[in-house]
Amino acid sequence: MKTRNYGSIWRRLIVVLSAMGLAVTSAGIGVGYANQNIEASYEASNRQEFIAGSLLVDDQQPAQPSAAYSMEMAAAAGDDFDQDPWEGFNEKMFTFNREVLDRLLLKPIATGWDFLLPDLVQKSVQNFFDNLAVVRRVVNNALQGKMTGAATELARFSINSTIGVAGLFDMAKVSFGIEQSDEDTGQTLGVWGAGPGPYLVLPFLPPLTVRDGIGYAFDAAMTPYLYFAPWYATFAGTGTNTVNERSLNLDRFERVAETTVDLYSAVRNAYLQRRAAAIRQ
Questions:
Q1: What are the pLDDT digits (tens) for 47-68?
Q2: Which of 34, 152, 201, 210 has a CB 3.0–4.6 Å from the CB of 90, allowing a cystine?
Q3: pTM, to two decimals
Q4: Does residue 186 contact residue 215 with C-beta atoms inside 8 Å?
Q5: What contacts 65, CB < 8 A, 6 or more positions away?
């Protein structure tokens, strides 16, 4: 009987978690993996939320959320909205992610990638990796009792993997109007009643709460190719997705950074607001 090498699987998981962190480290606050449902988070308030740092901006002029809107979202999120007991540590990690990892490493590579590849190709790469995240979305829709959402994700995966040429094109949305029904483990834990815990920023990782950090690890474990692709292929694939996501949002990140005075607080508040809204949906 063949014995599965669990040690090897965990080593790959660690590599993926580290590499995936780069995909969401841009501007010290997150890209790539956080692309799950950001654009739809605040439709009720007629605002568009940029992927860059989860900052809320108007379609015409970038801006921080209004005071009234922030207070409304804070009340909805409960006392946990202001729960940042590790602020000193978090700010240092935020600065490291933004000023070192992104500015010196990720952004220069993404700029070259953007110069070499047309937007259509970059979007196809994004679609391909997004299609591979179907397991996370199906499982978490089911765990939250959203069976229609789980069925929607299975339908999208079937269409995009065939007609969409292995997921390179989102034909489920373009041709059939089937929108993504995105859920993650952090949201599932929140729906089940788990509190978010303190806000936390770690090197190589997106902004998190303790609850979302646990969910992040489970979501990474639901990456299908982790269990059969060699570690170097996994690392290369994650790196490609990382750079591609950053290149798609070069201008957005710059606008957000240039128009926000206290970027750390703005990112923290917008992140907590978005997560609270996602769990209530």
A1: 333 333 333 333 333 333 333 3
A2: 201
A3: 0.73
A4: yes
A5: 47, 56, 73, 269, 270, 273
